[in-house]
Amino acid sequence: MSDALLLALRVYWRSYRPPHWLFEGQSSDRPLSGAAIRRVFTTSKRKAGIEKVGGIHSLRHAYATHQLEAGMHIHQLQHQLGHRSIQSTLHYVHWVPNYREVTEAGIDLIAALERVDE
């Protein structure tokens, strides 16, 4: 987890102090459901005018690809994605034809978004 994401989650928690789940469902004693997350994703895509086919899992693929483009070590990405086998992680390398491991950390995508907003 990046430093920027951890900071954002801490700010969220301090602001809302959810009693049971970090992201609550319709009642505070239940977590936010996968179906609710998919609805928000689909609605957000539509509002943004994104017509490209793809579900919420495409965010995981995009994250992996961007990290490899930024030079993240393949084993670090394997750990972040929770893959037991390096073969699962190597699936993403073909999306980045000029892949070379350049940096230890890759890129903090959350921090990069904050810089764009400034």
TrEMBL record:
The keyword Protein biosynthesis does not apply. One of its GO terms (molecular function) is DNA binding. One of its GO terms (biological process) is DNA integration. It holds the Pfam family Phage_integrase. The keyword Acetylation does not apply. It comes from the Bacteria. Coiled coil: none annotated. Residues 1-107 form the Tyr recombinase domain. Keywords: DNA recombination. InterPro entries: DNA_brk_join_enz (IPR011010), Integrase-like_cat_sf (IPR013762), Integrase_catalytic (IPR002104). PROSITE patterns: TYR_RECOMBINASE. This is Tyrosine recombinase XerD. The gene is xerD_10.
